[in-house]
Design a protein that fits this description.
The chain is an alpha/beta fold. It has 2 domains: about 70 residues, no CATH class; about 150 residues, Divalent-metal-dependent TIM barrel enzymes (TIM Barrel, Alpha-Beta Barrel), CATH 3.20.20. It contains 8 helices and 7 strands, in the order αβαβαβαβαβαβααβ. The strands form 2 sheets. A 4-stranded parallel beta sheet has the order 4-5-6-7. The longest helix has 22 residues.
Length: about 230
Protein backbone atom coordinates (compact mmCIF):
# COMPACT_ATOMS: atom_id res chain seq x y z
CA UNK A 1 0.00 0.00 0.00
CA UNK A 2 1.39 3.42 -0.96
CA UNK A 3 1.68 6.29 1.48
CA UNK A 4 -1.18 8.31 0.00
CA UNK A 5 -3.45 5.23 -0.03
CA UNK A 6 -2.61 4.54 3.60
CA UNK A 7 -3.36 8.10 4.66
CA UNK A 8 -6.61 8.15 2.72
CA UNK A 9 -7.71 4.85 4.30
CA UNK A 10 -6.78 6.06 7.76
CA UNK A 11 -8.54 9.37 7.30
CA UNK A 12 -11.61 7.64 5.88
CA UNK A 13 -11.89 5.46 8.98
CA UNK A 14 -11.70 8.53 11.20
CA UNK A 15 -14.31 10.35 9.15
CA UNK A 16 -16.68 7.38 9.27
CA UNK A 17 -16.41 7.29 13.05
CA UNK A 18 -16.97 11.02 13.24
CA UNK A 19 -20.19 10.83 11.25
CA UNK A 20 -21.69 8.61 13.96
CA UNK A 21 -20.74 11.04 16.74
CA UNK A 22 -22.92 13.97 17.76
CA UNK A 23 -22.03 16.99 15.63
CA UNK A 24 -22.08 19.25 18.68
CA UNK A 25 -19.33 17.29 20.43
CA UNK A 26 -16.00 19.09 20.10
CA UNK A 27 -12.77 17.40 21.09
CA UNK A 28 -10.97 19.28 23.86
CA UNK A 29 -7.38 20.29 23.12
CA UNK A 30 -4.82 21.79 25.47
CA UNK A 31 -3.52 24.02 22.70
CA UNK A 32 0.18 23.19 23.12
CA UNK A 33 0.40 21.85 19.56
CA UNK A 34 -1.36 23.70 16.75
CA UNK A 35 -2.32 20.80 14.50
CA UNK A 36 -3.26 21.44 10.88
CA UNK A 37 -4.52 19.13 8.15
CA UNK A 38 -4.27 18.78 4.40
CA UNK A 39 -6.84 17.78 1.80
CA UNK A 40 -4.98 14.51 1.24
CA UNK A 41 -5.87 13.40 4.77
CA UNK A 42 -9.49 12.99 3.65
CA UNK A 43 -11.50 11.07 1.11
CA UNK A 44 -11.10 13.13 -2.12
CA UNK A 45 -14.87 12.89 -2.66
CA UNK A 46 -15.56 14.73 0.60
CA UNK A 47 -16.53 18.41 0.14
CA UNK A 48 -14.01 20.86 1.55
CA UNK A 49 -16.70 22.31 3.79
CA UNK A 50 -17.05 18.89 5.44
CA UNK A 51 -13.28 18.59 5.88
CA UNK A 52 -13.21 21.95 7.64
CA UNK A 53 -16.10 20.99 9.89
CA UNK A 54 -14.30 17.82 10.97
CA UNK A 55 -10.96 19.52 11.59
CA UNK A 56 -12.71 22.19 13.68
CA UNK A 57 -14.53 19.49 15.66
CA UNK A 58 -11.24 17.75 16.39
CA UNK A 59 -9.71 20.97 17.71
CA UNK A 60 -7.50 21.62 14.69
CA UNK A 61 -5.94 24.96 13.84
CA UNK A 62 -6.19 25.10 10.06
CA UNK A 63 -5.15 23.62 6.70
CA UNK A 64 -1.89 23.65 4.76
CA UNK A 65 -1.67 24.38 1.03
CA UNK A 66 -5.25 25.50 0.46
CA UNK A 67 -5.74 27.95 -2.45
CA UNK A 68 -6.93 31.47 -1.53
CA UNK A 69 -10.38 30.97 -3.04
CA UNK A 70 -11.08 28.44 -0.25
CA UNK A 71 -9.78 30.59 2.60
CA UNK A 72 -13.28 31.99 3.36
CA UNK A 73 -14.46 28.41 4.07
CA UNK A 74 -11.64 28.01 6.59
CA UNK A 75 -12.67 31.26 8.27
CA UNK A 76 -16.27 30.04 8.45
CA UNK A 77 -15.12 27.26 10.81
CA UNK A 78 -12.64 29.33 12.80
CA UNK A 79 -9.66 27.87 10.93
CA UNK A 80 -6.78 29.59 9.15
CA UNK A 81 -4.66 28.86 6.08
CA UNK A 82 -1.58 27.70 7.99
CA UNK A 83 0.68 27.44 4.93
CA UNK A 84 0.18 28.94 1.48
CA UNK A 85 1.40 27.49 -1.76
CA UNK A 86 4.75 28.48 -3.27
CA UNK A 87 3.37 31.04 -5.69
CA UNK A 88 5.82 31.62 -8.57
CA UNK A 89 8.40 29.14 -7.22
CA UNK A 90 8.17 25.66 -8.75
CA UNK A 91 9.60 22.19 -8.18
CA UNK A 92 11.30 22.21 -11.56
CA UNK A 93 13.34 25.40 -11.40
CA UNK A 94 12.77 26.94 -7.96
CA UNK A 95 14.78 29.67 -6.27
CA UNK A 96 18.15 28.23 -7.28
CA UNK A 97 17.72 29.49 -10.86
CA UNK A 98 19.27 32.94 -10.72
CA UNK A 99 18.12 33.75 -14.24
CA UNK A 100 14.48 33.50 -13.06
CA UNK A 101 14.81 35.75 -10.01
CA UNK A 102 13.63 38.91 -11.79
CA UNK A 103 10.56 37.07 -13.10
CA UNK A 104 9.69 35.57 -9.70
CA UNK A 105 10.26 38.56 -7.45
CA UNK A 106 7.16 40.67 -8.20
CA UNK A 107 4.61 37.81 -7.91
CA UNK A 108 6.35 36.67 -4.72
CA UNK A 109 5.83 40.12 -3.18
CA UNK A 110 2.19 39.90 -4.27
CA UNK A 111 1.90 36.51 -2.58
CA UNK A 112 3.21 37.98 0.67
CA UNK A 113 0.53 40.69 0.56
CA UNK A 114 -2.16 38.12 -0.26
CA UNK A 115 -1.13 36.07 2.77
CA UNK A 116 -1.31 39.12 5.02
CA UNK A 117 -4.81 39.92 3.78
CA UNK A 118 -5.96 36.31 4.23
CA UNK A 119 -4.40 35.68 7.64
CA UNK A 120 -1.89 33.11 6.37
CA UNK A 121 1.37 33.25 8.37
CA UNK A 122 3.58 30.96 6.27
CA UNK A 123 4.65 30.52 2.64
CA UNK A 124 6.06 27.19 1.51
CA UNK A 125 9.04 27.31 -0.82
CA UNK A 126 11.33 24.88 -2.62
CA UNK A 127 14.84 24.87 -3.99
CA UNK A 128 14.16 23.34 -7.39
CA UNK A 129 15.88 20.56 -9.31
CA UNK A 130 19.68 20.53 -9.26
CA UNK A 131 20.15 19.48 -12.91
CA UNK A 132 23.86 19.20 -12.25
CA UNK A 133 24.15 22.34 -10.10
CA UNK A 134 26.29 22.00 -6.98
CA UNK A 135 24.89 22.43 -3.48
CA UNK A 136 27.23 25.42 -3.01
CA UNK A 137 25.95 27.24 -6.09
CA UNK A 138 22.38 26.42 -5.12
CA UNK A 139 22.94 28.00 -1.71
CA UNK A 140 24.39 31.14 -3.26
CA UNK A 141 21.48 31.52 -5.67
CA UNK A 142 18.74 30.75 -3.15
CA UNK A 143 20.26 33.20 -0.68
CA UNK A 144 20.32 35.90 -3.35
CA UNK A 145 16.61 35.47 -4.08
CA UNK A 146 15.43 35.41 -0.48
CA UNK A 147 17.56 38.46 0.29
CA UNK A 148 15.43 40.28 -2.28
CA UNK A 149 12.17 39.57 -0.44
CA UNK A 150 13.12 39.16 3.22
CA UNK A 151 12.52 42.80 4.19
CA UNK A 152 8.93 42.47 2.97
CA UNK A 153 8.34 39.30 5.00
CA UNK A 154 9.80 40.98 8.08
CA UNK A 155 7.58 44.04 7.66
CA UNK A 156 4.48 41.88 7.23
CA UNK A 157 5.38 39.20 9.82
CA UNK A 158 5.25 36.41 7.23
CA UNK A 159 7.59 33.40 7.34
CA UNK A 160 9.05 31.71 4.27
CA UNK A 161 9.40 27.95 4.91
CA UNK A 162 11.84 26.15 2.63
CA UNK A 163 10.85 22.49 2.64
CA UNK A 164 13.31 19.63 3.05
CA UNK A 165 12.24 16.85 0.67
CA UNK A 166 13.64 13.46 -0.11
CA UNK A 167 15.24 13.11 -3.56
CA UNK A 168 15.39 9.33 -3.44
CA UNK A 169 12.02 8.40 -4.96
CA UNK A 170 10.93 9.38 -8.45
CA UNK A 171 7.23 8.81 -7.74
CA UNK A 172 5.91 12.30 -6.82
CA UNK A 173 3.65 10.70 -4.22
CA UNK A 174 6.76 9.48 -2.39
CA UNK A 175 9.52 11.97 -3.15
CA UNK A 176 10.87 14.79 -5.30
CA UNK A 177 13.68 13.54 -7.45
CA UNK A 178 16.79 15.73 -7.85
CA UNK A 179 15.58 18.46 -5.46
CA UNK A 180 18.30 20.78 -4.18
CA UNK A 181 16.87 21.12 -0.67
CA UNK A 182 17.02 17.45 0.26
CA UNK A 183 19.01 17.60 3.51
CA UNK A 184 18.42 19.43 6.78
CA UNK A 185 21.97 20.82 6.73
CA UNK A 186 21.34 22.61 3.42
CA UNK A 187 18.13 24.21 4.69
CA UNK A 188 19.76 25.28 7.95
CA UNK A 189 22.71 26.85 6.13
CA UNK A 190 20.31 28.75 3.85
CA UNK A 191 18.43 30.13 6.87
CA UNK A 192 21.72 31.21 8.46
CA UNK A 193 22.84 33.02 5.32
CA UNK A 194 19.56 34.85 4.79
CA UNK A 195 19.65 35.73 8.50
CA UNK A 196 16.06 36.88 8.87
CA UNK A 197 13.17 36.05 11.22
CA UNK A 198 11.11 35.67 8.06
CA UNK A 199 13.25 32.80 6.73
CA UNK A 200 13.02 29.34 8.31
CA UNK A 201 12.47 25.80 7.11
CA UNK A 202 9.70 23.25 6.95
CA UNK A 203 10.69 20.03 8.71
CA UNK A 204 8.86 17.21 6.93
CA UNK A 205 9.45 14.22 9.20
CA UNK A 206 8.70 11.70 6.44
CA UNK A 207 11.25 13.19 4.06
CA UNK A 208 13.92 13.87 6.69
CA UNK A 209 13.85 10.32 8.04
CA UNK A 210 14.53 9.03 4.52
CA UNK A 211 17.42 11.38 3.77
CA UNK A 212 19.05 12.10 7.14
CA UNK A 213 17.47 9.89 9.81
CA UNK A 214 18.07 10.70 13.48
CA UNK A 215 14.83 12.67 13.45
CA UNK A 216 14.56 13.45 17.18
CA UNK A 217 18.06 14.90 17.35
CA UNK A 218 17.44 17.02 14.28
CA UNK A 219 14.18 18.34 15.73
CA UNK A 220 15.86 19.29 18.99
CA UNK A 221 18.97 20.74 17.40
CA UNK A 222 17.24 22.92 14.81
CA UNK A 223 13.99 23.92 16.51
CA UNK A 224 14.99 27.60 16.44
CA UNK A 225 15.14 27.68 12.63
CA UNK A 226 12.11 25.43 12.09
CA UNK A 227 8.83 27.21 11.47
CA UNK A 228 6.57 24.26 10.69
CA UNK A 229 6.48 20.46 10.84
CA UNK A 230 4.80 17.97 8.56
CA UNK A 231 4.13 14.94 10.72
CA UNK A 232 2.62 12.46 8.27
Amino acid sequence: MQRREFLTTLAGAGIAAAVQAPTTLKVARRGRIKQAAMRTNFDPKMPFDGMCREVARLGGFGFDLIPPNDWPTLKKYGLIPTMSGAGPVGFEDGVIRKELHDKMEKPFHELIDQCVAGGCPNIISVGGKKKGMSYAEGLDNATAFFNRVKAHTEDKDITICIEVMNSRYEDPLLGRIDQMCDHVAWAVELCKRVNSPGMKFLFDIYHVQIMDGDVIRHIRQYKDVTAHYHTA
